[in-house]
Amino acid sequence: MATAPRPRTTTRDPEELAHRLTAWLAARLPGARAVDVSVPASNGLSSETLLFDIEHPEPPLRSCALRLAADPSAYTVFPVYDMVRQYRTMLTVARCTDLPVPKVQWLEEDPGPLGAPFFVMERVEGRVPPDVMPYTYEGNWLHAASDTEREHLEAATVGLLARLHDQVPLAEAEFLALPGEGDALRRHVTAQRAYYDWVVAGLPRSPLIEQAFDRLEDLWPHDPCPPVLNWGDARIGNVIYDGFDPVAVLDWEMAALAPREVDLGWTVYLHRFFQDLTVAFGQRGLPDFLRRDRIEARYAELTGHTPHDMDFFTLYAALRHAIVMLRVAYRQVHFGEVAVPADPDTLILHHGSLRAMVQGSYWE
Predict the structure, then answer these.
(1) Which site from 192, 194, 231, 238 is most exposed, i.e. has the minimal number of CB atoms within 10 Å?
(2) pLDDT digit string (tens) for 339-358?
(3) What is the dihedral of CA 251, 136, 363, 227, to 10 degrees?
(4) Which listed residue (233, 251, 263, 345) is catalytic?
């Protein structure tokens, strides 16, 4: 599988960040030094992560991961990076559930020390299914695993969603309620429309994305289930595994109150996104892994809630992912890495599958 150069995600100097981090840490923990500071090769397209160790006689954490709000000079993927909200979400999930959430140690709201707010948490050792090259592609540990091992990982991961949705009392997560009118699902979709409008401000709009929003209205659930705390970016690429067991659940920047199926649809579709790309490049991928029917059945078994209207929720996931992909593409345009094509829909990597979902032929 050929891949394009990785899009530019920051204008920050790693050496300068390391120097500033050490100065900040010494003020928080006198005598401490940040050592072995590095930027992981798998750093995401949104917020940035720094890895470092603390050199100190009695550090509260020895190995750390620092989650830094996106570089405001690098054409950010999202309009707002609320690190307080992410920090509070992780504390809430850790307090209310048995999910393996990394311990959060410090929150820095002042953008002065590193140029943007950030928080520091424990660094958990393990392995993560890769996005580049995708885990559906040959040559990585998950693809090389046995069917039994992947089934174990799949069941354990669906279990994370089941426990998250069941264990967090709604009152503990009210701070994640989205503004606006209507129920939680309507507010969630309205927020995505606002995000799309921000992405295309002054730029070519996407007819396909707008058709997908219209199709959502046609498929709108008659009776959406009550909201629960949604992880938001619910996919195996945001989990650290020890063997095939989850040991850390990461990336809570998209957390919100929404029906359970919003998380489930995202889990289903984000795997399909990688699977479809892999098949398009002539490989078989992992067609029996994270199948929609198995995810729905497993979730129903664990929670007693049978997922419904999943055509709506998988379309919604593909639509949301399309908006993110369009923003990433326009960032590449901003940095001169690509040009805007005559058809802006082709900037969306999965425009074919999104169009099939809009037409109702994808799951046939």
Answers:
(1) 194
(2) 999 999 999 999 999 999 99
(3) -20
(4) 233
Is 233 in the active site?
yes
Q: Per-residue pLDDT for 3 more than 90?
A: no
CA–CA separation, 24 and 143 (whole Å): 41
* pLDDT band, residue 1 (cuts 50/70/90): very low
- pTM recorded for the entire structure: 0.94
Amino acid identity, residue 223?
Answer: D
158: phi then psi, degrees, rounded to nearest 5: -60, -35
Q: How many CA atoms lie within 13 A of 357 on its CB side?
A: 30
CA distance 231 to 90: 10
Residue with tokens 């992880």: 231
* DSSP, residue by residue, 237-306: GGEEEETTEEEEE---TT-EEE-HHHHHHHHHHHHHHHHHHHHHTT----TTSS-HHHHHHHHHHHHSPP
